Amino acid sequence: VMNRLRAIAALVAGVARVRADNATAPDAGKLCLAGIRQSMNDKWVCCPRGCGSCDEQQCYARRARCCPISILKHKRRCADPADVGCVFARDPSTLAAARAALHAGDR
User: Fold this and answer.
1) pLDDT by residue (tens digit) across 62-100?
2) How far apart are CA 50 and CA 99, in angstroms?
3) From CA 61, how far away is CA 66, in angstroms rounded?
């Protein structure tokens, strides 16, 4: 319980710092312009346009480069509008704050 409370406190305390750190992060609206976006909770997965779709059916067909779960597991971040096979946050400050809180709970 104490670890969770510390994680929450770190999340609240770190939001302003995280937002400042993400001031230079790429705008999510400018990423995955050459691919297909698939929503995965607080993240977007960007599959290559040639996949035709970016969904579970691609996973069942064993097409890893078109499977959003596989792409999410590799944790490759989208940094350029032409990047595909990558992941980016809908709101980078939220994702970074959640990661910071999670790691704060490990201490």
Assistant:
1) 889 999 999 999 989 999 999 999 999 866 555 556 556
2) 32
3) 9
